[in-house]
Amino acid sequence: MAFTIDREWAAARLGVSSRTIDRHIQAGRIRTRRIGKKMFLEDEDVELLRNQDSARKADDYVIIMDNQKDAPTQEIIHPRDASTGLSPVDVAAVTELVRLYEETRTIIAEKDNTIKDLSYKLGKVETELRNTVPLVDYNKATFLLETAKTRQVEDANSLQTKIETLEKEVNKRNGVILSITLLFILVLGFSIVFFFSSQFM
Hints:
By secondary structure, the protein is mainly α. The protein has two domains: 3-106, no CATH class; 134-201. It has helices at residues 7-14, 18-26, 43-52, 88-131, 135-199, and strands spanning 3-5, 32-35, 38-42, 61-66, 74-79. The chain has a three-stranded antiparallel beta sheet with strand order 1-3-2. Strands 4-5 form a two-stranded antiparallel sheet. The chain is elongated and about 155 Å long.
């Protein structure tokens, strides 16, 4: 089983349009295989369709014109392979293209793996650098942090004590002011009563 014929070559081989080739493919009369971005047809299927229509058979030879300057025109005839419908030159060219494609894919895959490996190693080194802190600096930072926390708690307790003291002083002053106010009202009341009682006597 060989897949070396493209749609255009099959259409020329059978003497039909590319749409007719597509209809043969959809009907399952021609098997296909995708190589890279291009689709190739099964050689035997194309040859079988060609043999079924004798009116559309092509010659079994490809004629290539050699138009070199300063040389007489020559005809180079390459016999076709009966099973593939291709000349040895065509088969060699397709084979070389497939080989180059597979080789390129392998090189790209190897480079992708190398890039992934380097990215992983770089991330690992960055993580190790972030986590590499001298023990003395770590202990110093921990001590300062604990000291700051203790000082914060002490400051909070001191402020709470001052607030409670101020509240007590305010309450005490409010009580004194209230007592003075009541005493003043009583004195004022007695003075008024005494004044009016002395006027009527």
